[in-house]
Design goal:
- This protein is 84% helix and 0% strand.
- Helix 1 crosses helix 3 (59-79), helix 7 crosses helix 14 (326-379) and helix 8 (216-233) crosses helix 14.
- It has two domains: 2-176, no CATH class; 211-379, no CATH class.
- The N and C termini lie far apart (43 Å).
- The protein is built from 14 helices and no strands.
- By secondary structure, the protein is mainly alpha-helical.
């Protein structure tokens, strides 16, 4: 998946340029908004509720919500000026397809079909890369529409396979009314998904702010490349975070929980720092050679604090989730989002992508501080 994602980014930047990459990133924000809304009923809660509700009974409520989320999520984003109105159809349609894949992937996980879940993830990335190669070089179509078409083909084929596999879920033995299913999905999905949606907005709002600023889509494209690099630095904390969650949830002894999480926190910071040192030492000329435009290195350096604070925040957030304190994750994500919006609006007009990166670093520091306080309060004697 990492190889496919890297190849897609390189293709987009080399063919579409900084402005094209910025527009692509903005469209992808719209897709994430839709999936952020759809996750309230058609997300991770289905795995948690597998023992209470037959998986097949979740299909109709989940798919109904996916359609509503595609329309309402895109409409809300455009109405607030957060998303580009000219791409309403693309964002709603692609967001719906992505939501279907995520929903069915969670159902497959709940049914212990992990291999099929993994196949869907890899298939999506591989088909997108193949579609872009065909559009850019086979058809000589160097446009945003080519990317949208390739992504639509990738998501459409992957969603079709996921639908086929979802149709093989066990039949329902006992009756469950759709409203009963919706109530339970909402009850167990709202807290975690609120935090996830707010975190996504904190991570991606700069792309929208830059695209609509005087710096324009080109600055958004530069920032997106630097931020994708930042996310790659979180390889270690993202691998450790699920383990922290499961171990914390299973361990009743507070001291053992805390010691295990502290060790994971140290590993996460060391792993991130090692990759960060390499990233900040790469000259901007190397980034320009790889992606086709300069200005990426200063943004990477401005995002360096966000890399470390984000790594720590991920571990602490999963610890809090493990002890049932999901609301702290949502609260601190919201605090980070407010900080980001305030500072980015102030700094991007003059400093462009670099100002947006510093705003992201301050927001990450605020969120990390909030999680640290919550962690201490919830686990103190």
């Amino acid at each position: 998946m990492l190889a496919f994602t890297t190849a897609v980014i390189l293709l987009n930047t080399r063919v579409l340029g900084a402005s094209g990459q910025g527009e692509v990133a903005w469209i992808q924000v719209g897709i994430l908004v839709v999936t952020g809304f759809s996750g309230f009923l058609a997300g991770g809660a289905v795995v948690y509720l597998q023992k209470e509700i037959p998986l097949r009974a979740m299909l109709i409520p989940g798919h109904s919500w996916l359609i509503a989320s595609a329309v309402l999520g895109t409409w809300a984003g455009i109405s607030t000026g957060f998303l580009p109105a000219e791409h309403f159809g693309a964002m709603a349609g692609l967001g719906w397809l992505q939501g279907v894949i995520i929903f069915h992937s969670q159902l497959l996980l709940a049914d212990h079909r992990i291999r099929k879940h993994n196949v869907l993830q890899v298939m999506q990335g591989g088909l997108l890369l193949a579609g872009l190669l065909m559009a850019f070089f086979g058809m000589d179509n160097h446009s945003i529409g080519a990317f949208v078409g390739a992504l639509a083909g990738s998501l459409g084929l992957t969603a079709a396979l996921s639908i086929f596999w979802a149709s093989k879920l066990p039949t329902v033995d006992t009756a469950h009314s759709p409203m009963e299913v919706v109530r339970k999905l909402w009850k167990f999905g709202r807290s975690a998904q609120t935090g996830a949606l707010l975190q996504m907005l904190t991570n991606r709002s700069n792309l929208s702010i830059l695209a609509q600023s005087s710096a324009g889509l080109a600055a958004s494209g530069v920032y997106s490349i630097a931020y994708y690099g930042l996310e790659a630095m979180w390889l270690v904390p993202r691998a450790l975070a699920p383990l922290v969650y499961t171990r914390t949830a299973a361990e009743k002894d507070r001291l053992i929980r805390m010691n295990a999480t502290q060790k994971a926190l140290g590993k996460a910071l060391l792993g991130t720092a090692a990759l960060l040192v390499v990233a900040v030492l790469i000259p901007d000329t190397c980034f320009a050679w790889a992606f086709g435009f300069d200005g990426i290195q200063p943004v990477v350096r401005a995002l360096a604090p966000a890399a470390l604070f984000g790594a720590a925040a991920s571990i602490m957030a999963h610890h809090l989730s493990g002890i049932g304190k999901h609301h702290w994750n949502a609260a601190t994500s919201g605090l980070g989002l407010v900080t980001l919006l305030a500072l980015a609006q102030e700094w991007t007009p003059e400093s462009g992508a670099i100002g947006a990166a510093w705003a992201a670093s301050v927001a990450a520091a605020v969120q990390c501080a909030g999680l640290l306080i919550a962690w201490w309060r919830c686990e103190r004697v």
